[in-house]
Amino acid sequence: MRSLKHQMLILLLGSLFLLAVCFLTVLGWYMKDRVVAATIIKTQTDLATCGEIIDKTYPGYWSVQDGNLYKGATKINLNNELVDHLSRLTGDTVTFFLGDTRVATTVLGSNDERVIGTKVSANVARTVLEDGQTFIGEANVVGQWHQSGYAPLRAENGNIIGIFYVGISHAYEKEIITRSLITMAVLGLGLTILIALITWFFIQKVIINPLHNIMLGTRDVATGHVTEKVKVSRVKEIEELEDAFNQMVEQFQTSIEEIDSRADSNGEMPLAEIEDTVIDSSEDIETTDLSLLTSNTSEPEEVSKADTAWSIKEEDLPKGLNETTLEQIIEFLQANRRPLSSEEVAEGVKLTRVTVRRYLEFLEDRGLLISKLKYGIGRPVKLFTPI
Question: HAMP domain spans which residues (predicted)?
Fold first, then answer.
């Protein structure tokens, strides 16, 4: 069975992964539209730029001489130097047509050779050669789709004698989109790892560790080894669980005290008191033997009234209280002569708060302590002060 932190981490990572997939899908569609729009603008710009370069580099009119296409005095047919130069400047495929037939091009066929002598598509020929308009859009160029621009080439008399073409392959568009998505995916993966680490630390510190401490405290209660309250977290829900656990501990301690009291009332002494009685008896025997060996010529020390008041014998104690524990609490009170709460005394003598409170109330009834309530945030605290 997976632990809580593993389940929470898997849930978080699954949510982040699903979010990333949706984000990349939407981004892919958005980028596709943006890339298509950008390639159309680039095609128009490249078509106009290449036309200006050709006019300035090769002055003169377009003409047909001996079945070849000329620009001024420069022959265009098989002029690979010209088309390669324009292709390097723009990054596009470049072609010159005489009529509807390619006479110079950078477009390669399946055998990696220039496709000289092939025809332009029928819809482009109709738009450019017959209607005399510039074609901007998708076109099939030797079996591959390109974002293309076709401009008519006019002779001196205005007749259309050929076509000038620039185009951007769809493979180039996909490459741009793919590179962008890969970059976004890498950045998203890095961000996801960072969020996972932060979340792992948060879950461990704020949820898992407090729950683990409460679990250990529950085991102590289950085995009867009650120690003290747990203080685990500042998270509201965990604090509510902490308060419920601490109330359970107090009720458990109270139940133990009641069981001890009932055992005393039935003439049965709890195991803890039996041990204390054995220890006290052994101390009395040792004291008696020592007193027989010492001289009685020394003067007894004067005992103040206050010390006498604090000296309480076993027979003066109510059932459920023992002299050894009382002496331990009295020593702590006399060493810290200031207002103390039952929790502070319990922490100092390493006993439960419920047990210590019974001894403090007994000393208050004897007139050795006075108590008053201290008001603040939350429940008022009862403070005991030695007289």
Answer: 205-257
